[in-house]
Automatic annotation (TrEMBL):
One of its GO terms (biological process) is chorismate metabolic process. Residues 264-291 form a coiled coil. This is chorismate mutase. Keywords: Coiled coil, Transferase. Residues 265-356 form the Chorismate mutase domain. Transmembrane segments: none annotated. It comes from the Bacteria. Pfam families: CM_2, DAHP_synth_1. GO terms for molecular function: chorismate mutase activity; transferase activity. InterPro entries: Aldolase_TIM, Chorismate_II_sf, Class-I_DAHP_synthase, CM_dom_sf, CM_II_prokaryot, DAHP1/KDSA. Signal peptide: none annotated.
């Protein structure tokens, strides 16, 4: 079964964008029920809670385990709201199905392992439940798509993806770098697959959730997964990124939803003009980059002739600092400059390395 051919009608049942919310971790039956009671069901349609919590280091709270499924089931029965939890292996998947969990998501640490995803897919074979796949920890689009393909191959037809950002050694204001272009490439290749943003894990900070949620809706995402807690500062896991249900409702009320298009003549005329300017500037940029790489090749040839190493850390640090300073003065973001400069430098080093290896 090709994932391009699967109609994802399940997402169309919601009049508003889909919002999946609840605590990072289920801590007690009372905590779970208190949060569920405080959700505004008009804006928040699915209740989530982590039952099993894969943690980076041993000794951290790793979830209450299967007992938490009883609490989730109670939420579903009393509040008539669908429930969701993360499954990290095949045994989790089977238990979640036994307790009639409606939405199952595969976390970033599981998506990164094709063997784990395959075992989960086989445990969920032909299920009618909705299965969501978080992006892998590392920025690997093929790995993300591969997880969807494994699920589809097992007859699972209700699929979606969750964008929770990617780990990076470069420090930024975010816990996980969004790298929006990766999620948007998946959306471009598979427009039928619903795309949900997880601003809690992208930001790692409650004060940035609204900003990232708005960015997601600017890019036509289908919904959000946001962590909420009745007392966020006392949460047993990821306290800094959780907010109250009331704070989440305020964010959702304030968010601006964008239209897919505007067919008015004024909009179309201006958009076409601006796009023409972008096309011309892109051609100029590509020409400048090509010229820069030609100079890099000449430097590579010179280094080869004089038996000098390709990578010169002192020169790279000076160049990078100067470009970062000039770029920020021009209004370019630090994150964008970092990404761009590293990409250009890597291409230059690769070209020079090819020259060094030529006999």
């Amino acid at each position: 079964m090709n994932i391009q051919d699967i109609k994802q009608d399940w997402i169309s049942q919601f009049e508003k964008p889909l919002v999946i919310t609840g605590p990072c971790s289920a801590e007690s039956e009372k905590q779970v029920m208190d949060i569920a009671e405080r959700l505004d069901k008009e804006y928040m349609q699915v209740f989530r809670a982590g039952i099993w919590k894969p943690r980076t280091k041993p000794g951290s709270f790793e979830g209450v385990g299967a007992i938490g499924l009883n609490w989730l089931k109670k939420v579903k029965d009393e509040y008539k709201i669908p429930i969701a939890t993360e499954i990290a292996n095949a045994s989790h998947a089977k238990l979640a199905l036994e307790f009639d969990v409606d939405y199952l998501w595969i976390g970033a640490r599981s998506t990164v392992n094709p063997f784990t995803v395959q075992e989960i897919a086989e445990a969920l074979r032909d299920t009618d439940k909705i299965v969501l796949v978080k992006n892998p920890v590392n920025p690997d689009l093929d790995l993300w798509i591969g997880a969807l393909e494994r699920l589809a191959a097992q007859g699972i037809k209700k699929l979606g993806v969750i964008h929770r950002g990617f780990s990076s050694h470069n420090k930024s204001k975010y816990r996980n770098n969004p790298q929006w272009q990766i999620a948007l490439e998946l959306k471009d290749r598979f427009p039928n697959i619903p795309l949900i943003c997880d601003p809690s894990h992208i930001t790692g900070r409650r004060d940035l959730i609204q900003e990232v949620a708005q960015q997601a809706f600017n890019l036509e995402y289908n919904g959000l997964m946001v962590e909420t807690h009745c007392n966020p500062d006392e949460a047993w896991s990821d306290a800094k990124q959780q907010i109250t249900p009331e704070e989440l409702k305020k964010i959702l009320v304030d968010i601006t939803l964008r239209k897919k298009n505007d067919t008015s003549n004024d909009f179309s005329s201006k958009l076409n003009r601006y796009r023409g300017e972008i096309d011309e500037l892109d051609n100029q940029l590509l020409g400048l980059l090509a010229s820069r790489m030609e100079v890099a090749k000449k430097i590579g040839q010179l280094k080869k002739e004089h038996n000098v190493a390709i990578f010169q850390p002192d020169r790279w640090n000076v160049l990078k600092k100067l470009a970062m300073r000039n770029g920020e003065r021009m209004g370019l973001s630090k994150e964008f400059l970092e990404y761009l400069l590293v990409a250009i430098h890597k291409e230059s080093v690769d070209l020079q390395n090819q020259i060094m290896e030529d006999k």
